[in-house]
Amino acid sequence: MVPVLARMAVIIKADHDTNVITGNYEMAYICGLLRKLSGTLPQDGTAEAYETPEAMQEEALRALDGYRAQDAREENLLRMLRAYKPESIYDDQVRELYRMGLEESRPWQK
Fold first, then answer.
1. Among 31, 40, 34, which Cα is nearest to 90's?
2. Residue ranges of the DUF3837 domain (predicted)?
């Protein structure tokens, strides 16, 4: 249930430039989604490669360095990811949301 709610929250927040990430679940989904959308997929494709949520965020931002957002939604997601300060929570749901993001492709389009 939590992964679906976090995913939906990110999709809604992508439409507004005043939103912020409210937890590591949203951050993980955004990390995976932006890696997928930018074509900078990690080599192993799993969240298990990261020991902390900070490491996941740092690696995503490093991979996205120089990436030009394709639309306002992507720009909002990038802004939110850059501004977020990860919490210490790093559980299976964080990893699951990262994987979900890696498998998505423009979830706001049907």
1. 31
2. 1-104
Average pLDDT on 51-65 reads 95
Residue 66, both tokens: 């120089």
Token pair recorded at residue 92: 């299976």
Q: List all residues 6 or more positions away from 79 whose beta carbon is below 8 Å from its beta carbon.
A: 17
Q: Is the pLDDT of residue 78 over 70?
A: yes
Q: Write the DSSP string, 30-47.
A: HHHHHHHHHT---SS--G
**Cα distance between residue 101 and residue 35, in whole Å:** 8
Local structure of 20: helix, strand or coil: coil
Residue 92, classified by CB atoms within 10 Å of its CB into exposed (0-12), middle (13-18) or buried (19+), is exposed
The reported pLDDT for the residue numbered 45 is 59
How high does pLDDT run on average in the chain? 91
pTM of the model: 0.93
